[in-house]
Write a structure and sequence with these properties.
Length: 347
């Protein structure tokens, strides 16, 4: 048979080829279009044809190939439609798979609860950087130069050298009082802010201490603010957070930026004041530090201490969360173990 006859014969056959399934279709593809297939072989033959005859044969040969290719596409589509028709449809009345919701981190839940309690009495939230400088974290807060309190708070200093100069005073904030200094420098009293955020201290990591934790500090500056106002607000907070029966007690303490200063205990929420391992048998647990803003701090931040007075307080969110949810090991808060996290309220 000449090549022209072969082309004509294959043209005739094209509509007779049929495939019942994918395997048959593939077998036919191999028979005609694969490397050793009949049409591909015609191209081999075509190469040997004298030049002057090529033009007359090339065009019908290409058409033949296209004809087969489109026939194969057609068969493939038909088979696909048949398969889809044979597959059972999705049952649209079926109850959907439950959507798995994430849960809120316990520290976020508690932070929001605390902010909510204080916002009901007029506090707003202020934000500030975690990478701070000595001025905002210590100097403006009445820490004398070389004051050992800088070590007391186990500061992480960031060794950033500029050229030949000594390391600069860049550090990770050890408390969010640094946000309070920023607010005092930028706003005029009355000031009533909460400063929530992460703080860093160079402590060995254990069940009871971590190198970072979360604080919420509060600051109120106005005319005639007294220690009695501070006590009332803290009592309100303790009752809202831990229940109406909660008692508070204030013990004298020392902070460079407040005078007088105090630490506040609440009656142990776990044993109800009878004494347990959490409160070490005392019936009281310490939850925050507080005091009247030292006039030196007000003056350093440009606030007239003869006209204005104020109070400040600072608490650790982890500590409140431990009490509220009975979490015994601080490390759980940062390990991201979903078995722990799933126990809290969903989003
Ligand atoms: N800044 C203190 C600390 O981190 C807490 C505090 C804030 C104490 C405000 C008194 C007043 O320990």
């Amino acid at each position: 048979m000449t090549i022209q006859e072969k082309i004509a014969a294959l043209q005739q056959q094209v509509n007779d080829i049929k495939a019942q399934n994918a395997a048959e279709l593939e077998a036919l593809r191999i028979k005609y279009l694969a490397k050793k297939g009949e049409i591909t072989q015609l191209y081999e033959e075509f190469r040997a044809i004298p030049k002057e005859e090529k033009a007359a044969i090339g065009a019908p040969l290409n058409q033949l190939k296209q004809l087969y290719e489109s026939r194969f596409r057609e068969m493939k589509d038909q088979l696909g439609a048949a398969v889809a028709a044979a597959t059972p449809r999705e049952d649209l009345t079926r109850t959907p798979d439950p959507l798995e919701l994430g849960t809120r981190h316990p520290l976020s839940l508690v932070r929001e609860e605390i902010i909510d309690i204080f916002s009901r009495i007029g506090f707003t939230v202020a934000d500030g950087p975690e990478v701070e400088d000595d001025k905002h974290v210590f100097s403006l807060l009445n820490f004398a130069p070389e004051h050992p309190a800088r070590d007391m708070q186990d500061t992480f200093f960031i060794e950033k050298t500029e050229g030949e100069q000594k390391p600069t005073d860049v550090l990770l904030r050890t408390h969010t009082s640094s946000v309070q200094t920023r607010v005092m420098l930028n706003q005029k009293p009355p000031i009533r802010v909460l400063c929530p955020g992460r703080v860093y201290r160079n402590e060995a990591i254990s069940a009871r201490a971590h190198c970072f934790f979360h604080q919420i500090e509060g600051l109120y500056i106005d005319k005639n603010v007294s220690f009695a106002d501070l006590r009332e607000v803290l009592l309100y907070f303790a009752k809202e957070m831990f229940g109406e029966d909660t008692k508070i007690r204030l013990r004298p303490s020392y902070f460079p930026f407040t005078e007088p200063s105090a630490e506040m205990d609440i009656s142990c929420d776990i044993c109800g004041g009878k004494g347990c391992s959490f409160c070490k048998g005392t019936g009281w647990v310490e939850i925050l530090g507080c005091g009247m803003v030292d006039p030196n701090v007000l003056e350093a931040c440009g606030i007239d201490s003869k006209v204005y007075t104020g109070y400040a307080f600072g608490l650790g969110v982890e500590r409140i969360t431990n009490l509220k949810y009975r979490v015994k090991d601080l490390r759980l808060f940062s390990e991201n173990d979903v078995r722990f996290l799933r126990q809290f309220k969903s989003c």
